[in-house]
TrEMBL record:
PROSITE patterns: LRR (PS51450). This is Disease resistance R13L4/SHOC-2-like LRR domain-containing protein. GO terms for biological process: defense response; response to other organism. GO terms for cellular component: cytoplasm. Pfam families: LRR_1, LRR_14. InterPro entries: Leu-rich_rpt, Leu-rich_rpt_typical-subtyp, LRR_dom_sf, LRR_domain-containing, LRR_R13L4/SHOC2-like. Keywords: Leucine-rich repeat, Repeat. Residues 167-176 have a biased composition (Low complexity).
Length: 523
């Protein structure tokens, strides 16, 4: 209600006092929004939590034998001071905003007190005429009976023209969430504000790839508020840990955290039961939490470029998995339980220290791609059941032989057994069963003779035998390409089978004669 003029109009001094109070309130800078204050409080809470965790870790460190305890104690204090300094830097913006909001709350209380005093002084209509003798209204103070000066309902001031002005009419000093997304480098405070605004908007997608400042090593605990998020991309940053609250993202289907500095995952990670796509490549992970076995809806998992020496047996619980990449790690073996991932279509294990594959690999009947480039494998397991296998790369290993059972994988189109050097001396005799084979690489091996069945590889388009001392067919024929080699082997076998057996000592002459004839025909 407004205050109406009456016989008991307040004195000019009284009016001036009210005016000064209201003008002082109007002169304040823009007030932070509820969303921004919540973001700031989240940052403070997160930084304090991470600070405490780090300080406890430092306190538990044990001095090396050759370092005196007193000196190591000094080192610990230095490390703790560094943590405290970093926390101070990360909280500075958030603490300022929280303190600013407290000041505004103080002003709110003062304005409320003034409102009550003015209400008691004036008539029941609560209208105060601050105009001149002619009765024109100069300034109206509109005071509601409810607590309008609280955060959600700022006090309203009207000028002589009746224009309503809110105390926080200007946007807050911190940019909006939309502007955050345009920025290339975001502070922890800004990230927290984005999370708050995304949570309130029930956003389903959030992309922070490469947008965080380098000094940001963790995300706010408020990340757990993103209950509607389906896809979250926080790749290409410098994150060292994920908040435990990440387990609250029940709607999350796709998570990309590649190219960070993660050295572990929180136990709550296993609560992301709806997760289908997970990219963790290019981090510093050595292990997975025990709860990881709960991610039974996971379809694609990329663990490449980490520091895994082994995978947990629980990997076999990921029964929906279709694509698994563990390239560029330190794996020495695969768990036998890998055979339980029956839907696996693509398995990439390049650049590890594998010496063998588990026999259970033969259970992966839907497997189409298996790459083992640059390992230490000597023998391949039985692969006759891999009827859908289309690509096999076992190059740069210590392979001594290729099992005949591989030739039952009749869908194979690309086979690379190159660069096994002195270890590999022959191809399986029934390689001709692989009638769909289009690419074959046997470079840098010790193979001298191709098997007779090679002539049945009618679809072969690419054949590499560089630095392999072939005698049958001769190297010069191999250089002519896949078609020439297949044709040579076909004609050689046909001609040989039509002729009577010759003494061994004449074999070299006959072969040379046949090669010369083949050259003429090819020319």
């Amino acid at each position: 209600m407004a205050l109406t003029p009456n016989k008991n109009d307040p004195s000019p001094t009284y009016v001036e006092t009210v005016e000064e109070i209201m003008k002082s309130y109007k002169s304040l800078p823009p007030r932070p929004s509820i969303e921004e204050v919540e973001a700031a409080m989240s940052v403070v809470k997160t930084v304090n939590y991470e600070e405490q965790e780090r300080l406890e870790e430092i306190s538990k460190e044990v001095a090396p034998q050759d370092v005196p305890p007193e000196l190591f104690s000094v080192l610990q204090e230095v490390r703790k001071s560094k943590v405290l300094f970093r926390s101070h830097e990360q909280m500075k913006e958030a603490v300022h905003l929280v303190e600013l909001d407290k000041i505004f709350q103080t002003f709110d209380e003062l304005i409320q007190r003034a409102s009550e005093l003015v209400s008691a002084k004036t008539s029941p209509e609560k209208e105060l005429n601050l105009g001149g003798p002619d009765g024109e209204i100069g300034i109206e103070v509109v005071i509601s009976d409810d607590e309008s000066v609280r955060r959600n309902e700022e006090p309203k001031i009207e000028d002589s023209k009746g224009m309503s002005l809110n105390a926080s009419s200007e946007p807050p000093s911190i940019p909006s969430a939309a502007k955050y997304e345009e920025s290339k480098q975001l502070s922890l405070m800004r990230v927290a504000a984005i999370i708050e605004s995304s949570a309130k908007a029930e956003a389903e997608f959030l992309d922070l790839q490469g947008k965080l400042m380098d000094k940001i090593e963790w995300l706010p605990l408020s990340l757990g508020k993103l209950s509607h998020i389906i896809e979250l991309n926080i790749a290409d940053n410098n994150l060292m840990v994920l908040p435990s609250t990440i387990g609250s993202l029940k709607s999350l289907r796709k998570l990309d955290v590649h190219s960070n500095q993660l050295f572990n995952l929180p136990d709550s990670f296993g609560e992301l039961l709806g997760l289908t796509d997970l990219d963790l490549h290019a981090n510093r992970l050595r292990s997975l939490p025990a709860s990881f076995k709960n991610l039974k809806d996971l379809i694609s998992l990329d663990l490449s470029s980490n520091r895994f020496a082994h995978l947990p047996d629980a990997i076999g619980n990921l029964t929906s998995l279709k694509k698994l990449s563990v390239q560029l790690n330190e794996l020495e073996e695969l768990p036998y339980t890998i055979g339980s991932c029956l839907l696996l279509v693509e398995l990439r294990l390049d650049f590890n220290q594998l010496k063998a594959l588990p026999l259970s690999i033969s259970k992966l009947q839907y497997l189409e791609i298996l790459t083992l480039h640059y390992n230490r494998i000597k023998v391949l397991p039985t692969m006759g059941n891999l009827l859908h296998l289309k690509e096999l790369d076992v190059s740069f290993n210590e392979l001594e032989s290729i099992p005949e059972s591989l030739c039952h994988a009749v869908s194979l189109k690309k086979l690379n057994v190159g660069k096994n050097f002195s270890d590999l001396r022959a191809l399986p005799k029934s390689i001709g069963n692989l009638e769909l084979l289009e690419e074959l690489d046997i470079s840098d091996n010790q193979i001298f003779v191709l098997p007779d069945s090679f002539r049945f590889l009618a679809n072969l388009k690419v054949f590499h035998a560089d630095q392999t001392p072939l005698e049958l067919p001769p190297t010069e024929i191999a250089k002519l390409g896949a078609e020439a080699v297949v044709n040579f082997m076909a004609e050689f076998v046909t001609t040989r089978d039509m002729r009577p057996q010759r003494p061994v000592k004449q074999r070299g002459f006959c072969l040379q004669f046949f090669v010369n004839c083949f050259r003429v025909e090819t020319a």
